């Protein structure tokens, strides 16, 4: 079968011929791939800044944002059946008996770093015709979400972040969204304000998840006025703030108390600037992985004073659990209900497998491009 692979030793990217996988254990499932999304991580792998082939293999089949259809199931498979649409999780647990996270099925919190990630680290990915995996790594997507199912994996970033925000904010009385709106105290019906940094796929999906969770949502990004994303974001009900036109201080003035920052650009100097305007009892979530640039100066006293005097929390988040995948499927259904076909517009291009090189090298433009396999 055909597969798109990177070969770090020769720094090449291309279509290889790979043996079709077969079900080898009774809980495994064979999936025909339908679509595979391309993201920033894939582009880094294609630049050979990241990514590791499986042990003993010169190449790594790329792709971790999946949507496929079950074509065969092992004898003991219970949760999926032939014909189901599924999305596969990315990370597989490490083998260490003492990794409490992996042993509990929470490899998204692996302690050892010896996990593998399909299409990224030590394990082949999904940009190929067929994949076999254990059913425990699969989440079923209802057929009516077929055209946007490939967005489940990138949406899991926001789902994991939000679940942690709810956990963290249990530390104080924070549940006011519905109550205060009912009491007529907040005209908009929101009392929590979130700022999303960046309008790439992670930022846009994060904004939709935040809107759906009841946040008054601002997207701070440096797009041009005619960027179609701006109108799209506004039509979803979020407010767009141009970073070229508004300073971080002006952003804070416009928003009021910033309860949550959802960072989705991977630009550390911007992030630390915005950290200075995080509100009282606020939470700052980092999701981006910055490249290493020259060090920047940061006003550490100011930030630390705020951290303490305003009860703030900063955390980083990577990868996602099975529960986060299920939450992403449920949220995609809510997005579809609320915004209809507009959600489709988050996918800016669909391409045949032959377009892989331009897609992976970032020559194609658009925000979220997808490779159509079947
Ligand atoms: C993937 C995550 C993965 C991370 C780091 C992201 O693009 O969505 O699943 O953990 O890259 O490799
Ligand atoms: Zn582990």
Give a written overview of the molecule.
Helix 3 (152-169) packs across helix 5 and helix 3 (152-169) crosses helix 10. This protein has two domains: 2-153 and 319-372, Quinone Oxidoreductase, Chain A, domain 1, CATH 3.90.180.10; 173-310, NAD(P)-binding Rossmann-like Domain (Rossmann fold, 3-Layer(aba) Sandwich), CATH 3.40.50. Strands 3, 5, 6, 10, 11, 18 and 19 form a seven-stranded mixed beta sheet that branches. A six-stranded parallel beta sheet has the order 14-13-12-15-16-17, sandwiched between helices. The model is unreliable at 185-189 (pLDDT under 50). The protein has 374 residues and is of the alpha/beta class. The chain has helices spanning 40-46, 100-103, 152-169, 177-182, 201-212, 228-236, 248-255, 268-275, 300-309, 322-339, 356-360; strands at 2-7, 12-17, 28-37, 60-61, 65-73, 85-88, 91-92, 116-118, 122-123, 130-134, 138-141, 193-197, 216-221, 239-242, 260-263, 283-286, 313-316, 349-352, 369-372. It has eleven helices and 19 strands. Helix 5 links the parallel strand 12 and strand 13 (216-221). The structure holds beta-D-glucopyranose and zinc ion. Beta-D-glucopyranose binds next to loops.
